[in-house]
What does this fold into?
Amino acid sequence: MAVRTIQWKNNRVVMLDQRLLPAKEIYRVYREYSQVAQAIRDMVIRGAPAIGVAAAMGVALGALWVKGKNFDREIERVFANLGKTRPTAVNLFWALERMRKVYSEHRGEGIETVKRLLKEEAVKIYDEDISTNRQLGKIGARLLGNASRVLTHCNAGALATAGYGTALGVIRAMKEAGKNVEVFVNETRPFLQGARLTAWELKKDKIPVTLLTDSMVGYLMQKDKVDAVVVGCDRVAANGDIANKIGTYGIAVLAQRHHVPFYVAAPTSSIDLKCPSGAEIPIEQRNPREVSHIFNRPIAPRGVRVLNPAFDITHHDLVSAIITEGGVITPPLQQNLRSHVHHQ
Ligand code: MRU
It folds into this structure.
């Protein structure tokens, strides 16, 4: 695979430092779980499924270093710290829950067994994520039919997952199916995941890509240049509201106005039936400096008040369908999400 977002290697976690892309491809090697937690917070790795994989590997790493008699207490600390890294993407909590289940079910079998099983579970979560995305991609490519001009936001690609991607997985599968596909990507202020990461990934794969600023979507749709929007997501609430990168909501409103289908590509692990609606999804507020500065240079007067919510909520009635590895979920989302999850 061309992009190695995260790997478990010789009892270390190796991550491509996404903060430096596209200028530099630098890999970080972590041996402590606290370094993995910091890497998630600092956006060395980001994107909902990738955060989940990183957290799972963080637990496995944390367990490796715990000494015998304090195992229960120490492992709880590992879970608690990793659980506090980023609040919005439910995949983080989903992955931690899977790791906790392994721990709880096997804790009586001796520390060495638990350590081995945690490591195996983390690698399994990684492997499953890639196959999930490939399956999701195929289903999405079929759904998109003859659409060829696709707009996306942020990065829901190989970099945001263990590999292949969700929204970009759909686009990759379209290409693999021999379709003509052309991508418009928003730069995605303030962290520039679209410009730095999505444009980089697509260029690497030789998929035609055009970069725009976030404010150009209305212009593009007025000109009838977009056949479909496909975005990833950080959490799907039980009623079908979705949280995704800040700016997604505005795109969905424009898509509805211009009769452009708005698709959300999300693995089933992003569906949170315990969360009734978007109003209950915690929205991460990030450092104001991400908005007031670009690459450490100020772009606004010193001390100006800044807003920096990292995600927004798109109401379910703006969502045309949710593409998962288990099939396409269409409205009424509330009802269909529930039966989808129960059939998985
Ligand atoms: O802040 P980020 O970069 O972690 O936000 C990422 C997104 O919003 C993605 O669209 C989402 O996580 C889906 S990734 C397959």
About this structure: The longest helix spans residues 111-144. The chain has a mean pLDDT of 97. Residues 46-49, 89, 154, 156, 160-161, 166, 193, 232-234, 244-245, 310 surround MRU (CB under 6 Å).
